[in-house]
Amino acid sequence: MTSQLTLNELLERNKAVAAKHEPIPTFAELASMGAEPGHIVILTCADPRCNPHYFFDLKPNDGVIIFRNINGHVEPALNGILALDTWIGIHDIMIVHHTDCGALQWTDEQVKTTLKKWVPERSKEIDNISTFGAVTNIEQSIKDDLVILKSSPYIRKELADRSVGYVFDLKTGELTPVEG
Hints:
By secondary structure, this protein is of the alpha/beta class. About 40% of the residues lie in helices and about 15% in strands. The model has no long low-confidence stretch (mean pLDDT about 95). Keywords: Lyase, Metal-binding, Zinc.
């Protein structure tokens, strides 16, 4: 059995990376070179097995912007997407959920029950939290997130029209489109 990685081990790894790090251009430097910031947003799960740097072979200067949260839901990332779109102009949004997602393993009610045990004085507030990201079907979850994204009154129509969804298969590495 392997031991879990510790924060100290991560900091040691960073020292090794920093020793050979090549500076990354600032926004001002990019502008002076005629380069633009990324215009593609990938919204995906926080699960380290679902890593877009891996399955798209992304490099630091590819300029792809990645948002990660439980299951890769749109709603928690929407404000950030809107802010970036007003600043740099996003061209495409890709929602990528994945097989064997942890969000399939628990329910929002289970999270609420546990939170109420931890902070019983906040039970009423906890009851009013609508979701913690649990899902029962990955494809449907993508469809639901596309509906949220495309129905937002703040998302430009051309961006909504260029928003797509995919399931990443942890076993095959393949992406399967999900119509939304």
